[in-house]
Amino acid sequence: MALGAYVAVSAALFALGLVTIAARRNILYVLFGIEMILNAANINFVAFNRFNGDGMDGRMFAIFVIILAAAEAAVALAIVLNVYHLFGSTKPSDADLLRE
């Protein structure tokens, strides 16, 4: 498979992540959108490493992003659970009440 196919899949995944974040009807959807964007970056790292790189740089960046995504998911889900416990909803607009 050519490099263009990997980049096209990555661009589609990135766009889907942006649309998911923009719709933001639920905090969990926003988190899923962020995860899709991070996975699109991983596809690019590995694809460009395969076609243009000699070392393991792209794969190491991808592993680092996977570790970062796991930590982000754990912290974000803890925040979502706390917001749901306090407000009874997972809508981002309901969390604006924290400022008051």
**How many H/I helices?**
3
Class by helix and strand content? mainly alpha
Indicate the radius of gyration in whole angstroms: 17 Å
Low-confidence stretches: none
Number of domains: 1
**Quantity of strands, as a count:** 0
Helix content: over 70%
Q: Any idea what the shape is?
A: elongated
Q: What is the H/E order?
A: HHH
State the end-to-end CA separation: 54 Å
Main β-sheet description: none
The CATH class designation is: Mainly Alpha
Give the second-level CATH assignment, the architecture: Orthogonal Bundle
Name the beta content range.
Answer: under 5%
CATH topology name: Helix Hairpins
Give a quick precis of the structure.
By secondary structure, the chain is mainly α.
Features of the shown structure:
Helix Hairpins; single chain; mainly alpha; 78% helix; 100 residues
